[in-house]
């Protein structure tokens, strides 16, 4: 026991009980019992060192991310809560009453609305988005790059599908930008670079002071009535985040209502810069949908998983196996096998495991229900994807 080097030889472990214990006189018997006990201890220590510790280390390698996510409440406190503005809407309530209910006055004419997005590969979701917002948007502004945020070359997919978006053509300002393809750079730098270019494109599109500007990812879709309310009411806050319903893979998996990154700005030249982080404390409740990874083809999942800003999440190559991806989609489980990103143990534990199915297709983007056959994969009960 005194010799530390003892443990370094696994052969010793094998030798430990090759003597037969408990032979000879009573004294010898009790002596050898003690020795056997000690040897048992040594055996256990050996087992601990050579079996459990490697398993433990391998476990940390496999699940380290989960362990740190689970312990998040210990190392990170939750962000400051938003001031949530209650949101009133019914199709049969006049705009004047709607504005009044929010403590605002109705305007004589609506503001112009600019919807600006950075496009990656979300052709189907973009179709839903632009059809939803079409009645109220004056200019659709779209920028795409031939580089993902992580510096992977990509085709100009909007350009390739432009004929699908003929209906917005008279109101479209489209721009492209070449990627910088810097190896090993933080993806947020390329993202910031593209957002600055989007500011330029907005000026080209003719945005002016007090026009409404929607800043959001393509898959964060404000509901049409929300934008209509904001363009018709005076005195709305200069910057307002939109609380969206979070869905994963399709409208079959409703996760929570914690999406807040989308925002609407009353544009101020020189002050308003395109951003996708928290810019104010006010959040308008129930303002639309955030459908993450709502793709038609498995190949789009693979592309997005690789192109993601948080590309470190693809830790094992089997994550990209199409069969595994299909299984994960149908279960409502996590593509990256991660724990929920929450700030209290109660919420982490409450949200562990797959997202439960929902069978409600009430209050979804109208274009989706009017073209249900074409967009089946987004509706409850249709989790099977084409390989593409
Ligand atoms: C909408 O309003 C009209 C008249 O104000 C009323 O007749 C009708 O029943 C209302 N519809 C709903 C669905 O409330
Ligand atoms: C990306 O676009 C820029 C500008 O159009 C071009 O110069 C560059 O060659 C393109 N790179 C790739 C990899 O397509």
Automatic annotation (TrEMBL):
<keyword id="KW-0472">Membrane</keyword>
<dbReference type="Pfam" id="PF04724">
    <property type="entry name" value="Glyco_transf_17"/>
</dbReference>
<dbReference type="GO" id="GO:0006044">
    <property type="term" value="P:N-acetylglucosamine metabolic process"/>
</dbReference>
<dbReference type="InterPro" id="IPR006813">
    <property type="entry name" value="Glyco_trans_17"/>
</dbReference>
<keyword id="KW-1133">Transmembrane helix</keyword>
<dbReference type="GO" id="GO:0003830">
    <property type="term" value="F:beta-1,4-mannosylglycoprotein 4-beta-N-acetylglucosaminyltransferase activity"/>
</dbReference>
<dbReference type="GO" id="GO:0016020">
    <property type="term" value="C:membrane"/>
</dbReference>
<keyword id="KW-0812">Transmembrane</keyword>
<protein>
    <recommendedName>
        <fullName>Beta-1,4-mannosyl-glycoprotein 4-beta-N-acetylglucosaminyltransferase</fullName>
    </recommendedName>
</protein>
<feature type="transmembrane region" description="Helical">
    <location>
        <begin position="41"/>
        <end position="62"/>
    </location>
</feature>
């Amino acid at each position: 026991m005194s010799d530390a080097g003892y443990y370094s030889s696994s052969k010793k472990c094998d030798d430990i009980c090759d003597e037969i214990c408990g032979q000879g006189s009573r004294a010898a018997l009790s002596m050898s019992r003690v020795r056997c006990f000690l040897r048992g201890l040594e055996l256990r220590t050996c087992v601990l060192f050579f079996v459990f510790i490697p398993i433990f280390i391998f476990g940390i390698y496999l699940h380290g991310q989960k362990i740190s996510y689970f312990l998040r409440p210990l190392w990170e406190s939750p962000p400051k809560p938003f001031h949530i503005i209650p949101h009133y809407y019914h199709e049969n309530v006049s705009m004047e009453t709607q504005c009044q209910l929010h403590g605002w006055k109705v305007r004589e004419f609506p503001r112009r609305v600019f919807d600006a997005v950075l496009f990656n590969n979300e052709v189907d979701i973009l179709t839903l988005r632009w059809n939803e917002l079409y009645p109220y948007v004056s200019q659709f502004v779209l920028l795409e790059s031939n580089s993902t945020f992580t510096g992977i070359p990509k085709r100009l997919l909007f350009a390739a599908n432009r004929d699908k978006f003929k209906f917005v053509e008279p109101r479209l300002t489209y721009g492209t930008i070449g990627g910088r393809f810097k190896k090993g750079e933080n993806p947020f730098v390329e993202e910031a670079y593209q957002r600055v270019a989007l500011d330029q494109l907005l000026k080209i599109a003719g945005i002016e002071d007090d026009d409404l500007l929607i800043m959001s990812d393509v898959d964060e879709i404000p509901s049409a009535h929300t934008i209509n309310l904001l363009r018709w009411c005076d005195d709305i806050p200069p910057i307002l985040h939109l609380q969206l319903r979070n869905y994963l893979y399709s409208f079959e998996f409703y996760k929570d209502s914690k999406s807040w990154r989308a925002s609407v700005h009353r544009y101020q030249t020189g002050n308003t810069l395109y951003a996708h982080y928290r810019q104010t404390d006010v959040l308008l409740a129930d303002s639309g949908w955030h459908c993450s990874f709502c793709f038609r083809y498995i190949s789009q999942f693979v592309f997005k998983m690789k192109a993601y800003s948080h590309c470190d999440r693809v830790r094992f190559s089997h994550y990209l196996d199409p069969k595994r991806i299909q299984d994960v989609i149908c279960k409502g489980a996590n593509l990256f096998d991660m724990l929920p990103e929450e700030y209290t143990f109660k919420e982490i534990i409450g949200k562990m495991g797959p997202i439960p199915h929902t069978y409600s297709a009430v209050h979804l983007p109208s274009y989706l229900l009017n073209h249900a056959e074409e967009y089946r994969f987004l509706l409850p009960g249709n989790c099977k994807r084409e390989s593409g």
